[in-house]
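Progress note, sequence design subtask.
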């Protein structure tokens, strides 16, 4: 990650803060997933096709959220 913030001055420090926030968000999401599904992603025995289906559905959800936000900015 150091390469991303190299030479950015104060922005480099802000990027590290952002990265730490993202890492914290990942930890929180992991705990939510463990509570909801009783397992971690690494321990989940889904087949590759099922993982791809989940990822695809998440992308569709993201597209809906983005479109809704874009409409709000009009």
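Output:
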């Amino acid at each position: 990650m150091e390469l991303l913030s190299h030479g950015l001055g104060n922005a480099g420090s802000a990027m590290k803060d952002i990265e730490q926030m993202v890492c914290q968000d990942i930890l929180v999401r992991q705990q939510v997933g463990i509570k909801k599904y009783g397992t971690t992603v690494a321990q989940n025995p889904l087949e590759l096709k099922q993982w791809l289906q989940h990822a695809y559905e998440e992308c569709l959800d993201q597209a809906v959220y983005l479109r809704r936000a874009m409409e709000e900015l009009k």
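The chain has three helices and no strands. Work on this subtask will continue into the next period as scheduled.
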